[in-house]
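Q: Could you fold this chain for me?
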Amino acid sequence: MGNADSNPHFLFFDSIIVPHNHKPINITFNPILKLKNFLLNLIAMKYTYLFLLLLTLSCVSEKQPEIKPSIIPEPNKMEVVNGSLKLSGETTLLVNKETLISLAEKFKSDVTDRISVKVDNSEKAQIKLEIKEGLNPGEGYFLQTSKKGIIVQSGTEKGIFYGLQTLKELILFSESENGKISLPLLTIEDEPRFGWRGVMLDESRHFFGTEKIKQLLDVMSMHKLNVFHWHLTDDPGWRIEIKKYPNLALIGGQGNDINSDGPVEYYTQDEIREIVKYAADRYIEVIPEIDMPGHARAANRAYPEFSGGGSKSHPEFTFNPGKAETYAYLMDILREITTLFPSKYIHLGGDEVHFGNENWKTDTDVKRLMKQEKLKDLKAVETYFVHRMADSIKALDKIVIGWDEIVDHNLAPENSLVMWWRHDKTDKLKAAVNQNYEVVLCPRIPLYFDFDQDESHQYGRKWRDGYASLELVYDFPPDTLAQFTNNSKLIKGIQANIWTERIHDINRLDYMTYPRLSALSEAAWTNNKNKNFDDFNRRLKPMLSWLDKLNIDYYNPFQPELSPEPPSGYNK
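A: Sure. Below is the predicted structure, expressed as structure tokens.
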């Protein structure tokens, strides 16, 4: 007989319930009855456990899986639930605006190796692209994958494009079985941290050509990078055709940073237009840089009458600021530049003029200018030049960009943008913000991609033993710049600069660019609270496999021995 609790109204006799306060009943138990009761109890317990198990599973199904999909840059808001959407055979796609057809066709081409997409007008289409009024008017997008299909929505075509880049990664990096792609079920509401997410490539020192630029633009667009700053002129070579001054390309375009007698290499104006359109189709703005008043040696080889001379270590380094003809010459060049580049910006450089302005001290035209304009020193001459060219750029209805040296020249902030590059001079960044300039952050450490990315590397640059590791790029901007990045609307964004003194061929260009470009994209797009470097490394591995398919010779941070550092060709 079981023990009776003092409170309940029932006594338990094995499996038989007897009302309390009654006299005990004499029961004779037979084995069959006891076995029957035991089995009933066992069945009851089984169904209780089954119910609890089902309840637990139903709760778990609403939680996020432990492993998120591999998307770079990481979306700023994403919810993932268990389950998957299977895509197989021909996947249909519907657009609600004709202007989205070109995006749909490009997406179709991008994923053709994984799935077949047909642009259709059926409301039953598995993928729907929808421009919706009232949604994010900028670059944001909404993406949802469910058992019913896929929806990409935005207030703009640009937002739809970025949503499709995310969907493309999901398709390219998801598992497949028996010809079926399995996509995670998720909802994404996403928009970028910074509006300016840039890459600069220096092609004056070494020339890479149309196909390599297009490949770079393709990878940039996959990563939602949206500015290509094209450094086309500098001391070693002039890389753009100017119709009025053909010798700029034919003479100034000869050679490179290693071999001044190398072949003539430059882009024709037709090639420039082709690349600019290619970039625009991927929502990338191309900004030209025509360096002045310094870094002008290639131009001065072609037209020495406009040279302001240089110094012993930097001969023929400057344009002549004392000649009126110099300004007319440069204005003619800029007029042709504006017909080729629809961007509202023109970059005039403006850096390191002191490297080679020694000849200005004795130049007759410069001395006359100083007397006429009451300019007390060579710095004042430089300021005069920069102001005059900035006014010319404004007259062309463009905004001038310059490296952070232009902060000293007191240009009008409403028509100027500063690129802060000297990481050891935060006072220049502070001065730019205090003077109300818009600023793009591109400091040497860690955003100069000609710097080494690993301590063991020996052919790139270092700054007092400092280098630009993958993690430093990913963590940019650091907390030390939070006073600027968190509070100032003047910080437009960030940019990596690929200078090519130590990048002489395509293989080394790839090696120095990737995978740091992936880290850059997440630094530029994803808010700090959503970033995690360990998780980024997990998501980076499928991206590296994609780069393999493009025959890109990247640095492998997980197995460095598989990607030994290629020589730089640098011999100075």
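A (continued): The first helix runs from residue 31 to 60.
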